[in-house]
Design a protein that fits this description.
It is a single chain. The chain is of the alpha/beta class and about 230 residues long. About 40% of the residues lie in helices and about 20% in strands. The protein contains 8 helices and 11 strands. The chain has a 5-stranded parallel β-sheet with strand order 2-1-3-4-5, sandwiched between helices. Strands 6-7-8-9 form a 4-stranded antiparallel β-sheet, with helices on one face. A hairpin with a 4-residue loop joins strand 7 and strand 8. The longest helix is centred in the last third of the chain and has 14 residues. The chain starts with a strand and ends with a strand.
């Protein structure tokens, strides 16, 4: 069954861009052009995710989000906004949003973020103590990383980066996503810090092994695991 997305966006050009991007990836998409209509659709519980513009006529996105969470609607919500300041992002996330994407954005990043939201287990309460990808294993308690039984020594930032990639194995993660989740940057620092750290991590994880696990996805980002 196709996954169903609700897009709540009042700008016709942006809405058309999102709807076409999502339907082109096989999603079933409904569109609402104002906050009240968006809330009406969202409360029926039939959606796998909601793309919610922050500034909407009738009822703004933050009010829609608050109403959804008050009604115990747990559908993942990705907020779209022109407001990119840290305070604005923090407000959105602490108010119940699951992700926050600043306009303008690439369709590839929107798709990647939505797929990650939909893939998360309901409730998010399961505590993991170990992560793995093929013969690569990470123990989150002892902070021990091995590949085919061979110990891999990582610096703290490399460990966090690998943990993030393992949690999203076989899925594309963008540089922006890694900056936000691993470095906790909510702006572009104007450096190649992600590429440098991924390159170092790749050498530690892949050197000496016939099959590489860390892959560059041209024009999109990186992927750990199967990229054939």
């Amino acid at each position: 069954m196709s996954q169903k997305i609700l897009v709540v966006e009042d700008d016709p050009t942006t809405a058309d861009f999102i709807v076409k991007s999502l339907t082109g990836e096989g999603f079933v998409v409904d569109h609402a052009a104002d906050g009240r209509d968006g809330l009406f659709h969202a409360t029926d519980g039939s959606y796998d995710a909601i793309v919610l513009d922050r500034m909407l006529p009738g009822m703004d996105g933050m009010a829609v989000l608050a109403a959804l969470r008050a009604a115990k609607v747990a559908t993942p919500v990705l907020i779209l906004s022109n407001l990119g300041a840290v305070d604005a992002r923090v407000e959105g996330l602490t108010s119940g949003a699951n992700d926050y994407l600043v306009k303008p954005f690439a369709s590839s990043e929107l798709l990647a973020r939505l797929k990650l939201l939909i893939a998360r287990p309901p409730g998010g309460t399961q505590v993991e103590t170990a992560l793995s990808c093929e013969d690569l294993e990470m123990n989150l308690l002892s902070r021990r990383v091995t590949r085919a039984g061979k110990r891999i020594d990582l610096q703290p930032r490399e460990f966090r980066l690998l943990e993030y990639l393992l949690r999203h194995k076989e899925r594309v993660v963008t540089r922006t996503m890694m900056l936000e989740r691993v470095w906790e940057y909510h702006f572009d620092p104007g450096t190649n810090v992600v590429d440098v750290h991924v390159s170092r991590l790749r050498r530690k994880v892949d050197d000496g092994f016939a099959r590489p696990l860390v892959h560059t996805i041209r024009g999109a980002g990186y992927m750990l695991g199967k990229a054939d």
